[in-house]
Input
Amino acid sequence: MGAPELLQFALAGLKNGSIYALVALGFTIVYASTGVINFAQGEFVMLGGMLSVWAHSTLGLPLPLAALIGILGTAVIGVVFELLAIRPRKDGDPLALIIITVGGSLLLSNLARHVFGPSERSLPAFTAGPSLRFLGATLERQSLWIFGLTALAVVVLTVFYSRTRLGRAMRACSINRTAARLVGVDPKRLVTISFALAAALGGLAGVVTTPLTQTAFNVGSSFGIKGFAAAILGGLGNPIAAVIGGLVLGLLESMSIAFLSSTYKDAISLVVLLLVLFIRPQGLLGRGGREKV
Amino acid sequence: MSLLREHWRKLALLIVGAGVAVVPLFVTGTDARYVLKVLSFVGINALIVLGLALLFGYAGQVSMGHAAFFGLGAYASAWVTKSLGLPWLVGLAAAVLLTAAAGILLALPSLRLKGHYLAMATLAFGEIMRIAFVEAKGVTGGPDGLSGIPYASIGPLSFDTPQMNYWLVWGVLVLAIWLAANIVNGRPGRSMRALHGSELGTMASGINITGIKVRVFTLSAVFAGVAGALYASVVGFVSPSTFSLHLSVILVAMAVLGGTRSLAGPLLAAVVLTLIPYADAILPGLSREVMTVIQEWEADVYGLVIIIVILFMPGGIAGALRGVFVRGGEAK
Output
C-alpha cells in the first residue's frame, strides 16, 4: 500500500473519529455530572440530523439556519428530557438513571420515526464543489467542516470549563459534589446544563455528518455505541481523553479496513470497548487508582 | 411467613399452574394454531424475563444484551439439530453450555468492577453477536437465517403440534420458575437481599458478592439460551434480525415493569407486554386498524413505560401488588 492510499484511510479515520469524539464528549459531560452513562446520547446525534433536515427541506430555511436549529433544537430536547425524566428521580440512583436513559433512547427514536417519517434523509454539503486533492489523497469539502467544527467545539468547551464561572462550577461539582454545594453551587442546575451541552454536541455531530452519511430515525444507537467506546477508550470523565479516544478509534477502524477487511469495521469499536472495559477500565489516559469503598 | 400463608400460596400456585396446563384443551377453532403460537412466544419471553428479574431485581444489575444469548441458544440448537442431525436434547445442551460459557466470560471481568460496567459490556456483546450471526454464514445461514429446523423431541416423544409446543415451552418455564424460586428463597437469595441493604455489610459477613452476581448473570444467560432453543424448534426458523438491541431493551422493559425482588411481577409483565402486539390472539374482535395502531406505537409505549415505572412506581407491578395485599407498607 502506497503513502497516498494510507493517507486516504487516515483522513477517513480522522473524519469519523471527529464525530466519535463529539459523541464521546457528550457521554463524558453527563457522566461527570451524574455518574451515569447516558444511553440516549446517540439519539441526540440522530435528532441533530433529523431536525436540520426538517428545517432545511420542509421549512425551506437556508442551510446555516437549519444547522443552528438542529443543534439548538437538540439541546432543548436534552434539557426537556433531563427535566422530565432525570430530575424527578431525586435519589440519583445510577441503575435507575441508566434504565431511564435506555427508555428515553427507545422513546426518542420512535417519536422521531412518527414525526419525521421512517425514510433516510440527507442534507446538501455545507460548501458545494468537487473534492480537494491533498498529497495524492482526496478529501470531501464536508470533511473540512467536520474537522473545523469539532476543533471549534473543543476550544469553546475548554474555555468554558477553564474560564467561566459556570464551567468551573461544573468541574468542581464533578470532583466533589458535597464540597461544591458547600461553596454555593447548585448541582441540580449543573446536571440540566450538562444535558444541554451533551445534546448540543450530539446535535452538532448529527448536523455535520448528515451530508456525508445520511440520517434516519434509527441511526442513534450505533453512534451511541461508537461514541461510548471512544469515551471509554480515552477514559470516562476527561474531555481531552474523550477527543483522543474518538480520533484513535476512528483511525483504528479505518486501518482495519485498510489492512483487514471492511466486514469487521463495526466490530472493531465493540471489541475495543470490551477489551478496555476488561483490561483497563479507567481508559488509556485515566489514572490507575482503585476505587475506594 | 406463617405456615397458613405458605399453604395458601401453594394452593394459588397449583390453581394457576393447572389453569395454564389446560389452556390448549379450550383453544379450538380456526385460529387455534395462531393463538397457541402466540402463547408459546409468551412463555419463551417469560423465561428470558425470569432470568432478567433475578439479575435486575435481586442482583441490582441490568443486561443490554440478552437478545444475543437468546440468539446464541437458538442458533446453537438449530445448527446441532438441523445441520448435524443430532437429537434435540443435544441441541439444548449445546445452547446451555454455550450461553453459560459466554455468560461467565462476560460477567467475570465486568462484575469485578464497581458500578454498572455489565450494562456496557452486554451492550457491546449483543452488537458483536449481531454481526457474528450475519457473518458466520457457514453456521448461521447469514442474513437469510436458518429454516427447516426440526421440532423438539425427547426420545419417542415428538413436540410436533402447536399444543405439544405450548406444553413444552410452559413445562420448561415452570421448571425454571421452580429453580428460580428455590434460589430466591434459599441462601443465595438471602445474600442477594442483603446486597440491597448494604454491599459493604454483606461483604463483611463473608459473602462473595462478585461470585453471587456472576452466578446470577450466568443463570440468566442460560435461561435466555434455553428460551432460544425452544424458539428455534417452535418457529422452525431463525434469522439475525430477531436478536436485536431493540429486543434486549424490550426484555429489560418487561423486567423493570415487573418490579424488583419478585418473580411473579416480572412474569406477569412479560405475559402482558408480549401479548400487546398480538392482542388479536386473545381478543378476536379487534379490528385490523386497531392492531395497526398498536403495532405502530408499541415501541414508544415501551420506552415511556420504562421511564414512568422507574420514576413513579420503582417497585413495578410487584411493588404495587405488595401495597394492595400487605396493609401498612411494604413487605420485607
User: Anything to note?
Assistant: The first helix of chain B runs from residue 3 to 26. Chain B has a mean pLDDT of 89. Chain B touches chain A at residues 60-62, 64, 109-110, 113-117, 119-121, 123-125, 127-128, 131, 135, 200, 245-246, 249, 252-253, 256, 296-297, 299-300, 302-307, 310-312, 314 (CB under 8 Å).
